[in-house]
Amino acid sequence: MQKRTLVPILYILFLLLPIYWLVAMSFKTTNEILSGFSLFPQTFTLENYTTIFTDPTWYWGYINSIIYVSINTVISVLVALPAAYAFSRYRFLGDKQLFFWLLTNRMAPAAVFALPFFQLYSAVGLFDTHLAVALAHCLFNIPLAVWILEGFMGGIPKELDETAFVDGYSFPRFFTTIFVPTIKAGVGVAAFFCFMFSWVELLLAKTLTAVAAKPIAATMTKTASSAGYELGLLAAAGTLTIIPGAIVIYFVRNYIAKGFAMGRV
Amino acid sequence: MKTVNHKGWFFVLPVLLLVAFNALIPMMTVVNYSVQETFGNNQFFWQGLDWFEQILRSDRFHAALGRQFLFTFLILIIEIPLGIAIALSMPRKGFWVPVCLVTMALPMLIPWNVVGAMWNIFTLPDIGLLGYFLNHTLGINYDMTQDPLAAWITIITMDVWHWTSLVVLLSYAGLVSIPDAYYQAAKIDGASNWSVFRHIQLPKMKTVLTIAILLRFMDSFNIYTEPFVLTGGGPGNSTTLLSIDLVKIALGQFDLGPAAAMSLIYFAITLLVSWLFYTLMTKDDLN
To answer: Which residues constitute the domain of residue A85?
Structure first.
C-alpha cells in the first residue's frame, strides 16, 4: 500500500465516525444512551424507528420535505434551462450584469430574509404550503442551476443548433427533442444540486411553515426540546434524513465532480 | 461567437420574475424597516440613518463581526489546502473513485440542523464517542459548554467535516481534466513533485479553486444553523457569529429597525469581500 492512499482513507474514516455514532445511537434505547458510554448498541432496538414510522407528525415531516424539495427541483431546472440557453448562446442588453445579479442572491444570508419572507408569503396567502418553501428556495437554487447548466451548454458547439434549424426544426422542437437530451448529464447535475441545497436548508423552510407543510428537520428540533433527552429518537430521525441524499448521489456519482468544474465563475 | 439577440430577455424572463419576487420584495421590506422605528401595532416612525450609525458604532456588532471574520479565515485556511491535498492523493480511475466520491459527498447532503445535532451527540463529554475518548481515554478535560476554546475547536472541526469535501470534489474535477501527456512531459524533464504541482496542477485547478474559495467564503460567512444547534452561540457569547446575533436581535428582541440595518450592512460586507476575492483571483485572466 502506498503512503498516498492513506490520506483519503484517513479522511473517509474521519467523515464516517460521526455518522457511525449517529446510526449506532439510533439503535440504542434511551436508557442505554443515558446510562453510560458503549461503543456498540448493547440491547439492539428498532423502537426509535417504529415510533417514527407509526407517528404521523414524524413521517409527515419526511413527506412534506420530499414534496417541497421535488417541486423546487422541477421549477428551478425548468426555468433555468431557457435562461441558461440565452446566456450561453446570445448577447443581449445587460446580460453580464444580470448574470452577476443572479449570483449575488447566493450571497444573501438566509437569516437576513427570514422575517420579510414570512410577511411576503403570508401576504400572498401561501404561508404553510409546500409551494411557499419550494418558491422561496428558488432564490438560491435558480442561480445555481443557471450557472451549472450554462457551463454544460457552453461545451456544446453552436453547429448543433444551426444544423437543426437548417433541417427545418422549429425552436421549441429543437430545444426539447435535440438540445435538452444532449445535455442530460448537465440537467442531472443541476437537479442534484437543487435537491441537495433545498433538502439541507432549514431556516427558511421552518419560517414559512407551521403545521401542514412542516419539514422533517423542524419536527426534529421541536421534539428534541419538548421531550427532553430523547436522543435515540433524534438519532433515528437524523439517520433517516441521510438516506434520500445518499440515494440521489448514487445516481449522479459519475457527473458530480464534472458539474461544478464546467461552470464558469 | 455569440450572436447579439435581445430576444434573449424572453428566455430569461421566468428566472428573472421568480428570483426578483424572492429577492427584491424582501430586500425592499428590509430597507423599509431599516429607516424606521416601530413600537408594535404596525405604527412606524421615520428614523433616517440612525440605526446604521448605531450598529456601526456598537461594540456588540464589532465583536460579532470579528468572530465572523476569524471563523471564516480559519475555515478557508484549513479547508482549501486540506481539500487540495486530499484531491491530489485520490485515485484517478478504477473501482475506488465512485466509492470515494459518494462517501465524501455524504456530509454535504445532511440537513444542517442534523449536522449540528449529530456533532452535539458526538461530542457529549460522557456519552459521546469523541467526548468520551478525549475525557476518559486521553484524559483531556473537554467540555464545549464550559470552555470557549473547546467550543471554537468543535465548530471549526464540524465545518471542516461538513464542507472540506466540496473543495475536494472541485479540485478533483480540475485534476482529472489534465491530459496524461502533461505528466509524461514533466517526467521526461525530470520535474519534482513540487514543480509538477506548482506549474501543472495548480494552474489547471485555478478556475475550480476560484469557485471553491468563493462558495466557501459565502457559505461560511453566512453560516447559521449548524453552530446555532451545536453551541447556541455559547458559552457566553464566544461562538455568537454574525447570523446568530442577527437572529437574536430580529426574532429574540424583535428590534426590527436595528436588525434590518444590520442585515444590510452584513449583506454589503459579503458582497464587497466576494467581489474582492473574485477580482483578485481573475485579474491575471484579464491581462
So the answer is: 56-262
Q: Which domains does chain B have, with CATH numbers?
A: 52-286 (1.10.3720.10)
Question: What is the pTM for the complete model shown?
Answer: 0.86
The model's pLDDT over A51-92, given as tens digits with 9 standing for 90+, comes to 888 888 888 888 999 999 999 999 999 999 999 999 888 888
B287 vs B283: CA distance, rounded Å: 7
CA–CA gap between residue A255 and residue A258 (Å, rounded): 5
C-alpha cell at A190: 443541476
Q: Identify which of A104, A107, A242 has the shortest CB distance to residue B109.
A: A242
pLDDT of A150-182, one tens digit each?
888 888 888 888 899 899 898 889 999 999 988
B119 near A CB under 8 A: yes
Task: Tell which B residues from 33 to 62 touch A, by Cβ distance under 8 Å.
Answer: none
Count of all residues that appear for chain A in the document: 265
ipTM for the assembly: 0.84
| Angstrom distance (rounded) from CA B247 to CA B240 | 10
**Residue B4 in 3-state DSSP?**
strand
Q: Is residue A126 part of a domain?
A: yes
**Cis peptide, bond prior to residue B235, ω within 30 of zero:** yes
